[in-house]
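pinging the channel bc i need a second pair of eyes. not urgent but kinda urgent?? the chain im working w is below, pasted from the shared doc
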Amino acid sequence: YKMKQKPSRRIRNFETWYSKRPEYVQRMLERSEKYLFYVVNEVEKRNMPMEIALLPMIESAYNPIATSRKKAAGMWQFIPSTGKIYGLKQDWWVDNRRNVMQSTNAALNYLEKLHKEFGTWELALASYNAGEGRISRAIKRNKRNKKSGSYYSLKIPRETKNYVPKLFAIKNIIRNPKKYGLNLPDIKNKPYFEFVEVNKNIDTQLVARLAEISIEEFQLLNPQHKRPVINVRGASQKINLPYQNI
């Protein structure tokens, strides 16, 4: 972890909120087990703060098939337009906003770009949540009024104001669950999945049968596929399977 945390009533409120919902936290952590090793590795490669690996807990509770009221999809909750900007194909066959590897890469690219633009991870995260335009305008408004342009000083929507405190609350709970009366599941420090390439059209039920996994497990690792057939369309496609089933 690299982000500096200021003592805050908002963080304490979210620590209390999560600690009063042990089943929710347990479910979220168990769901994250499939993806967390991969995301942590990708964050480490870029030398980004490890708090970023916990962001899908705030966005989607680490659910790659999640869709919001605003049409945001996947673990990282990309809206269609931002997804397209960051190379996430969305058509009749696939929605790569739900692709575990591609959406993680796109989200980290986007967050790195925001950090470069705004200078702090707090402002980068606020922009990820509320949009660059809104955060830029809030900073300009503060500067006109001779006020600080820091995340904590901005007049921004409540959801965005709560975004970083919520992330810090999750981090604190994971760092010391006993302090909050929680008993969290162990997540193994090894890959859950690995990819294989397919270069011919193939039925998803057949993939699951050959890999000796349930179709539900296949869908949780490859939620981008919208049809019961993987259409390679002239190029090989990567599919994720549990490590031991490769």
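so The longest strand covers residues 193-198. and Strands lie at 193-198, 202-203, 229-230, 237-242. — does that match what u expected or am i reading it wrong
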